[in-house]
Amino acid sequence: MEQFFGFAFTGLPYGCTYALVAVCLVLTYQATGVFNFAFGAQAFASAFIFTWLTQYKNWSGFEAFLVSVVAMGPLVGYAFDRLLFRHIANSNTTAKMVCSLALLVGIPSLLPVIFGPQNLDATATILPFFNPNVVYFTLAGQPINGIDLSAVSVTVVVLVLLTILLRYTALGLQMRAAVESRRLVQLDGVDGNGVVAVAWIVSSFMASLAGVLFAPTFGAFTQDDYVTLTVVAIAAAAWALLRSLPIAAGMAVFIGVLTTVLQGYISPSSFFYATILPSLPFIFLVGALLFLPKMRELDASRDPLATIDPPPPPIAAASRAPTMNRIIRTLWWIVFAGFCVSMLTWIPDSWTTVFNNGLTYSIVLLSITLITGMAGQLSLCQATLAGVGAFTAAQLATHLGLNLLVGGLVGAALAAAVAVVLALLSLRLKGLGLALMTLAAALLFDATFFNETSITGGPQGISVQAKWLGTSAFFNFNGHAMFLLSLGVLIVVVFLVLLVRKGTVGRNLAAMRGSETATAGLGVNPSWQRIMVFALSGAVAGIGGLLHSLEQQVVSPTDWNADISLVLVVLVVTTSVTTVEGAIQAGIGFFVTEQVLTTVLPARIGGSSLTVVLFAFGALTYAAHPEGVLEYQKRRHTMRFERLFFAKEAEAEERKAARAISTSGANG
Amino acid sequence: MADGDHLLSLRGVCKSFGGIQAVHSISFDVDAGESVGLVGPNGAGKTTLFNCVCGQLRPEEGDVVFDGTLLNGMPTYKRARLGIGRTYQKVEVFTDMSVRDHLMVAERARRGEGRLWRDLCNMSNPTADEKERVDATLELVGITQLADISVNALGLGNCRLVELARALAAEPKILLADEPSSGLDLRETEELAAVLRTVQRERGTAVLLVEHDLSMVAQVVDRAVVMDVGAMLAAGTFDEVMANPEVRNAYLGQVDAV
Amino acid sequence: MTVDTSTPAGTSTAPATDVLSVQNVSAAYGPYRALFDVSFRVPEGGVVALVGSNGAGKSTIARTVTGLVTATSGRVVFAGQDVTQLPAFKIARLGMAHVVEGRGVFSTLTVEENLTLAFRQRAGRAKLKENLERAYTAFPILGERRRQVGGTLSGGQQRLLSLAKVLVVPSRVLVADELSLGLAPVVVDQVYEGLREINGNGTALVVVEQQVHRVLELATWAVVLNHGRVAYEGEPSGASREMEALMSRREEALATGAEEAEKEAERGAEKSGNPERVAGHVAGGPQTPGA
User: Fold this and answer.
1) Contact: A666, B102; criterion CB under 8 Å
2) Please, are residues A212 and A46 in contact by the beta-carbon 8 Å criterion?
3) Which of C184, C251, C289 is nearest residue B42 as measured by Cβ atoms?
4) Following DSSP, what letter does each residue of B56-82 receive, concatenated?
5) What distance in Å separates residue C154's CA from the closest CA in chain B?
6) What are phi and psi of C56, to 5 degrees?
7) Residue C148 and which of A618, A635, C188, C258 are 20 to 30 A apart at CA?
8) Which long-range contacts (CB under 8 A, 24 or more apart) does B247-254 make?
């Protein structure tokens, strides 16, 4: 029994760490209506700056604390509210999620751009009354030091204070009301926007505090530590239905304690120890999503005054004049032909690689067009599916000598199967629920299959060799051959996506985006439609993943982990998630921007980080331009051009439409 | 059981939410081609009952029998394919979609189509036959000129007509209309009533109409069922029901009907 | 229904003055214009009926007056103060109450929390208990369900709750938007009884309705709207005649197909907006049946 408590007490500080973050996540969701994926990123940013100031600038712990927590936390929260979330308060869940994901991806990439790459080792502590190096007492044989004590005490204090704030104060009541409808609460004389701004300030302050508090626990920390922390907290928050602070805290402590207890009793050499234990939080998350029916209703929009808002910006109108459309189409073909010829003739090898990378990435991104653009759901495991395809093909080629193209089809089929299983598990989930489910799946794969050396070849990965394509077919496989191969596959995939979109399934999915109830009421089986599009998306991702790995000549777990899944979403959302061009522009645009920035900028800034930051900025505009900010600009300029040269023709088309509406009798 | 005689039969349907009985032991029948009004004060459980028939809610007790098939536990889409169509109180149109496409969704769904491989092989373009049927339905509801317009540009009145046309495109045996006049003015309500009568006459579709606007109910229905606080108060021809003193008390108060 | 009988703050001014005046107000939802140059006045303690067909802009006026929608031009003067640019919560604190169309309660808060939120702001913390008691006496059903969350109440009960929020603590002006929509006639009677009672205690009313007859019995002044413009302003008796005239004119226009011409003319007159389209989009956009 003593042994059991010994293991349990070791887990308590971890549990408290998770609990603090879980409680803050619930508070943010309850008081702002946003599920803040970026919470861990905010914590990381504060810890980064705190450590940077103490380690490199020789500031005292207290001064650094003032800057990185007391000043930065509330300021960031206020900025988030004023510049971003206030404007999307009435947008749908997907838009809010995309914004917080963009922050999650953007913030950690922004830090090295500003400060340069740093090796940080957190030692300074900000709690003056607990010394991390002193063992205060022993419990059940376990030494309890200052870090443990501060984790437990801070969590308890915060939990009590926040519970009182949210449940028993006037401000808390106003926050809960303002989340539901900022308009309605104003009619009761409450400044709705102000209340939510306060909530953001509190929440962001908590994130900064948590980040700095726990930096010493990690020692030399990276952003991954904070991502893991957030995910455990998400699992606990999910069991609390994103509602109850005490349950969230209790669940987080339970997960923390259970982990160390299991660690204590299970032999470290067993399979269970290596794979199941790290994925314990994700299993909890999946469990919450599967077994708590209330998790399915998280998204229901509740604002009775939502109609007051100006209607969403009309998606920039596509060109109307037929002549104009013909000209654009012709131009497209000319550019395309020019590009192909250039790729095969004068473009240097370094740039051929860039474009090949872009083309193969585009295929993976098209899988997001299928799920997010057509089914309107956010999937955060597309990189995982791509990885399944790539690893399967690489393993089949290594061990069975199977041709890479055949292996690719097998890999695609396997990726499709994984996607179908996911779709089956999340049949009744939508929006946030589905996003969390796919994120959990991605992290589960990272912790288990992708972490298994026999499958992925460890951190350095498996080399993917062109000769596996069959040397006879590809005499001298070089960049040009790779170009032709990826272009061919891309064209096939583009056509498939377009066919689905204009076909019955595409129409049904579009209808489901409008109203799933009404679609089912007509006789469409919504689950079946979704399963099919997930399967296709999985297969496309699998093929894209293999081709991209072939171009890279290696496939490693870090190419296709959960972080990459998030980046992929951010990329395609910026250009356009609703069109196939969007995916291609995102793929090529990403690698071209990266190449240009790395060449032009000093190495200190880091071209690839900056590229991610740029795209993350683009993704922040998703709520304003759901068609993609690039697509929006494109259409706007096309329209301007049209107005200049083809005004008459466009007007005639417009008048035709207007006349039809006005001659209908029942129009109020 | 003499279910064969009726198109839709409800037998002792009960449904409650958190201990509050929303629908308590409701039984009535609708015959093929008949038009029945379901009236009752707010919160009487009419929409709940509709949802029990369509499968969005599962009643705790009682049976719903449609065209000789016991529907208990059957998902919404299967019920729709059997021939139950409906419109919604809070308009549920497909944003960003043209009116014609609304009807195409229904046209394909009716036959349970929507297989991915057909799309991938480019085999799912509308056939001449389908186009003809869609055009006929648009004509019947009187919105032919709206066919290629996105519903985003339409007002509430037209949206209700689009919903009606969409439901009819699935060629239902019974149409459940949930407060079609709510939010419409007198003129629009009359137009909608006229369309409902036409549908019933030309297609022989049975209509179950939930409505507050008694003048509209009077124009459309043959019979009426009155509900109050989840229970059935009266049933009979419209005039009979309205003459019932209990109904007058619960529903109309001191005010004269119509 | 028992209601606070104390006079609302600031009614000491002469009864002839206007507590609210709307002067040449135009309003829009984004690019869609919904109101064109609307003016009317609400005398202290008066009852103004806003009537008109679906999409005529009635709810938009109600929302402009209470600050949910900001006017693009013109002025709204309330209690002697220009409130045109004020946010809704500041106007509410000046003594404006607004019962919104449809659900006007917080579905995640309990009945008691809904009432607390309103009373604490309107009547101060000290009187909270007393006001809650009064609300539960006036609406016993709310007392029975005080721990139930708003979302689980039936539509009629939700309407009663949103009424309780504004009836118990009297305000200077109460804007009531489509109170009778979707309610059984017998409940509508109760609602109107409550309105009459608080009007008797000095609260001026602006009542937006589609069911013309009931509101015109109560009103001292009537405004008929058509396509976002004032079509008639005057005694209530004249309003029903005007409504009928509007109806028959539309019917004629439909029959002769002249409506198209009329609209074409309107479009020419208002370059920046098409009122017809506005009415459709705002009042009954695909998502919500409205106004």
Assistant:
1) no
2) yes
3) C184
4) SS--SEEEEEETTEE-TT--HHHHHHH
5) 6
6) -80, -15
7) C188
8) B250/B41, B250/B226, B250/C184, B250/C186, B251/B39, B251/B40, B251/B41, B251/B226, B251/C184, B251/C185, B251/C186, B252/C185, B252/C186, B253/C184, B253/C185, B253/C186, B253/C189, B254/C189
- With CA atoms as reference, report the closest residue to B36 among B224, B216, B212, B256: B224
CA B54, B60, B64 angle in degrees (round to 5)? 40
Nearest CA among B88, B16, B18 for reference residue B50: B88
b vs e for A153-171, b when ≥16 Cβ sit within 10 Å of the residue's Cβ?
A: ebbeebbeebbebbeeeee
- Residue A77 Cα, gap to closest chain C Cα (Å): 23
CA of C90: which chain A residue's CA is closest? A189
Element (H, E) at A554: strand A554-555
Euclidean distance between CA atoms B149 and B151, whole angstroms: 6
SS3 A384: helix
Looking at the complex, report in whole angstroms how far the Cα of residue A630 sits from the nearest Cα belonging to chain B: 20
Residue B92 and residue A663: Cβ atoms within 8 Å? Answer: no
Q: Are C290 and B156 in contact (CB under 8 A)?
A: yes
Ramachandran angles phi, psi of A332, nearest 5°: -55, -50
B1-83+172-258 sits in which CATH class? alpha beta
| Residue C202 CA: distances (Å) to CA of A143, C5, C44, C81, C171 | 72, 9, 8, 19, 9
Partner residue opposite C280 with nearest CB, options B93, B156, B251: B156
CA distances from A33 to A30, A175, A478, A636, C87 (A): 6, 10, 51, 32, 21
Tokens of C263: 């609209």
Written as tens digits, the pLDDT of chain C (291 aa) is 444 444 444 444 444 588 999 999 998 876 667 888 999 999 998 999 998 876 678 888 999 999 988 899 999 999 889 999 999 999 999 999 999 887 788 988 999 999 999 998 888 888 899 999 999 998 888 888 889 888 888 777 888 888 888 888 888 999 998 887 767 777 788 788 888 988 998 899 999 987 777 888 889 999 998 888 888 888 888 888 887 777 677 656 545 544 444 444 444 444 333 333 333 333 333 333 333
What DSSP designation does A310 have? P
- From chain C, pick out residues whose CB is under 8 angstroms from the CB of A87: none
**What sign does the CA torsion over B153, B156, B157, B162 have?**
positive
Residues of A in contact with B112 (CB under 8 A): 523, 525
Q: Do B18 and C186 touch (CB under 8 A)?
A: no
Going by C-alpha positions, the residue among C287, C247, C285 that lies closest to residue C34 is C285
Half-sphere exposure in the Cβ direction for A584 (13 Å, CA): 12
- Domains of chain C plus CATH, in order, are 18-105+153-284 (3.40.50.300)
* Angle value at C-alpha C87, between C85 and C91, nearest 5 degrees: 95
3-state SS class at B255: coil
- Alpha-helical (H) ranges within C127-258 are 128-138, 140-144, 155-167, 185-200, 212-218, 236-256
Question: Which candidate, C38, C42, C39, C40, places its Cα nearest to that of C19?
Answer: C42
What is the spatial distance between Cα A534 and Cα A558, in angstroms, rounded to a whole number?
23
**Which residue in this structure is represented by tokens 């029945």?**
B36
Which ipTM value was assigned to this complex? 0.90
Of the candidates A449, A451, A467, the one whose C-alpha atom is nearest the C-alpha of residue A459 is: A451
CA-closest candidate to residue A664, choices B129, B148, C247, C81: B148
Q: Which chains touch C (3 or more CB pairs under 8 A)?
A: A, B
Nearest to B157 among A532, A535, A666 (CB): A666
Question: In a mutagenesis test of the B interface, which of C147, C154, C254 is the best target, namely the one with the most B β-carbons within 10 Å?
Answer: C154
CA angle A425, A431, A437 (to 5 degrees): 35
Contact A662 C276 (CB under 8 A): yes
